[in-house]
Every structure is written in C-alpha cells, then in structure tokens.
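Posting for a labmate who doesn't have an account.
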Amino acid sequence: MSKLKYFAAFASDESFGCKFVKRLYDYFEGDIERAWNASSFELQSIEGITKKKIEKFTELRNKINPDEEADKIAAENISLLTYDDDDYPTLLRQIDGAPMWLYYIGNRELFNAKYNMAVVGSRKCSQTAKAVLAKIIAEFKSTDLCVTSGLAAGIDAAAHQAALENNLSTIAVLGSGLKNVYPTSNKNLFRDIIEKNGLVVSEYPINAEPDTYHFPMRNRIVSGLCPCTLVAEAALKSGALITARLCLEQNRELMCIPGAISNPATQGIYKLLKEGAGIVTCGKDILDIMSWKTVKKSLSKNKAETSACVNGLNEDENRVLEILRQDSLNIDEISLKTGFQVDDLMIILTRLEIEDLIIQAEGGIYSAV
C-alpha cells in the first residue's frame, strides 16, 4: 500500500507525464517513494529533466496528498495496476512508452490473456462491416479468446458486443477516466463488460475528460496488450490506421477484413493488405495466421444460454429467421412483427445472408432458404 499511494499520486495529474515518471522510476531503481519525494538537487542529476520541469513537478507535488489519492480510488471501487506489479501485462511492458499505471475495474486475470486480439475500425462503419465482424467473432463462441478494443462507437462497440454475446472475454481501453465513460451511448456496454467478467482499463485519472489527444495514446495500449490486431474497416485517414501502425512498430501481427472496393471506408484496409497485412475472412484465418489453438471454456451453460443460440445464431437472429421461414417479408414488415429497429434489423439480415440462411429478392423481399 505504501508504494501504491505514490503511484496513485503520480497518476492523479496528467501533467506529470508517463515518460517523466518512468525516468524517475528508472533513476531511483524502481523506488517510487524516493521518486515522489526526490529533492530538487537529486532531480537535477537526472539526465533529460529540465529546470522548468523540476519546478513544475515540485509545485504540483506540494498540492497532492498520496494517501488521499489512494483513498479516492478505493472509494470508487477502482483498482490501480502499477508498472512494478507482477500482473502487469507482459506484452504491454515491451512497448515504447508503456504506461506506468492502469486504472481498472473487472477481471484482473485478463491483463495477461493468452489469446488476446485487438479489434479496431471506423466509428462510422457500415452495417455490413459490423455483421461480418460479428460472424467472425461468433466462430470463437465460448472459447478462451479475448477481444480487446477501445469502447468507441462503431467497430469497437460491435467487437465488445459480439464478444459478450458469444461468451468471450473482452477488455475495453478508454480514452477518458473510468468515472467519465465516453461515448455516453456506451455506458450500458461499459457496465455489461464489467458484469460479465470483462475488464475496463484507463491510464487517465478517474474523472478525466475524453480529450482528443487521449485517443492516439490510448491506441498504443489497445495494440500493446495483444499479439495481434484485426482491422475491420478503415478509411485512408482513420484512427484505426494509427493503431495499425503502432501494431507493426510493436512487432505484432496485423490482420484485416477485406470489404467492398467501392466503399471509401475500406481504402485503408486495402492499403494495409498491399503492405502485407494478413487477410481474414473467417475465424480459422486468425488461428492459422497466429498458430493459435483456442479451446472451449469449461463452463456449464444454463438453459437460457443454451436456447439463446441455435446454429451459431443469437436469439434475435433466430427469431427473424423463424419469421421468414413462415413468410416472405420486406424489412418494414419484419420490423412490425419483431419490434426491432430497422438499423438493428439490417445487421441481423446481413448476418443471415452471409450464413446463406436467407435470400433477398427483387423489391427487398426476404425469404428463408
């Protein structure tokens, strides 16, 4: 606890900076208490630290009480994983600029998940991209695969949701504090991840705002936790391409899901494929590229879980399929019968078409095969 409170003190203000703290940590040979209490004279002896930085550090330090910072975290039921902790992620420790701490809620064991795959892509992704990604993730249902992403809108949220629906572990890395979930539309997803034994993580103070510069920094953690990154959809100017570049810089495997060449949101994908990224069209491709052998979890399923999935489909998909087995309908008619929103139906219908379970005829009429 004595060490943790000094990490908590450093973590409480972004102004200290990860690289500055790492420099102090290394100079004092991992003694974080000495680093926090270092005199100006000692700090002047550290290479690369300017007089201005020393003055700023001492000024900030005088306003922070380490005991109070540790208590604040505990009061919110949030934990702090530190760089010197035995459970600090092995892969993350290897990257340039590894975070000195990570605030987290949830299943600590996932920090070192054996089969951990980062999934990134466009925030304004197509419904087809969501459906294809969901299909690929569903092929790993109830195995020890872990899906890591950034809880952003679009592909990130789709990846987390698909993982939860298929009894997979998932890690969400935020670009804001854990008490300030962004986007707010994903607050329910945030809670679902925690409730279903997943893990939510951030290096930022617990109430930190989702500032623009946080997200590129967040991306190094998303890819850094994983031996591979899967890009589901990305335009040429896309944050997903930043993560793809970080993945390669971290000497990890990069994979992409191809899409329609007419879609501008796939141009980044084809750029990466031309540069040598692996092509993924099914779950087996991931296993082959990574030489992985995922196994089924040894968890008993209750009756509801068993009935929720038939032929690899979830409950909503089976419901739509059953309706189309009885009659051929357009999307508005299906919406009326099911109560599902059209946007949600588009994802479901695309998934069923990919599985060759339904066909769409002229006039937008859907029929079961």
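Reply:
Got it, the structure tokens are right above this. The chain has three domains: 2-75, 105-290, 303-368.
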